[in-house]
Design a protein that fits this description.
The protein is an alpha+beta fold. The chain is about 15% helix and about 30% strand. It is built from three helices and nine strands; from the N terminus they run αββαββββββαβ. The longest helix has 13 residues, at about 1-15.
């Protein structure tokens, strides 16, 4: 099988099936250059938390569409200490609004961090319990929500007023 596969790959590359990133038009985002989560298939973006002047980085799955936000972290059985999911409502909503999250079909406890449009933490729903159908709501209007493993916000010392920054993936 190896002897058949190698010539086919070489032929595809020679025919232009593989274009090195350096030859792509400037500004063109390559799907291959975006890291994707193995389970959800969502793009992974770095999210920086600034707490008391110190920064901490989280690798977060990016949920920008209503469908991605609706699924969230449902059915997941684990989430690493420096992993999470960032929900971006700016892709569909022009104005910040109060947001509410429930834990339907969510197997693990989560911290739900509500983030204002300016990147400051509005409020934190700490240790939201699996399968709870009660809504965990932001105090004020927000544009983003970050979910972390339950208890992680307290471990990091994250509080309302701290800053959260990230860049949405291209495309």
């Amino acid at each position: 099988m190896k002897s058949i596969l190698a010539p086919v790959l070489l032929a595809l590359m020679a025919a232009g099936g593989c274009t090195p990133a350096a030859q792509q038009p400037e500004g063109a985002a390559s799907e291959k250059s975006v890291a994707r989560h193995l389970v959800s298939g969502l793009a992974i973006v770095p999210v920086t938390l600034t707490i008391d002047g110190k920064t901490h980085e989280i690798a977060a799955e990016y949920a920008g569409t209503p469908q991605e936000r609706g699924r969230g972290l449902m059915f997941r059985t684990e989430l690493g200490a420096d992993e999470g999911m960032i929900f971006d409502f700016s892709t569909t909503d022009s104005q910040p609004s109060r947001q509410g999250f429930w834990m339907k079909n969510t197997v693990i406890p989560l911290d739900i961090i509500f983030i204002k449009a300016d990147g400051t933490v509005d409020s934190i729903g700490a240790e939201a319990q699996p399968y709870d159908l009660n809504s965990v709501r932001s105090v004020g209007p927000v544009m983003y929500v970050l979910e972390l493993a339950g208890g992680r916000a307290a471990q990091l010392g994250l509080e309302p007023g701290d800053r959260v920054t990230f860049t949405a993936p291209a495309g």
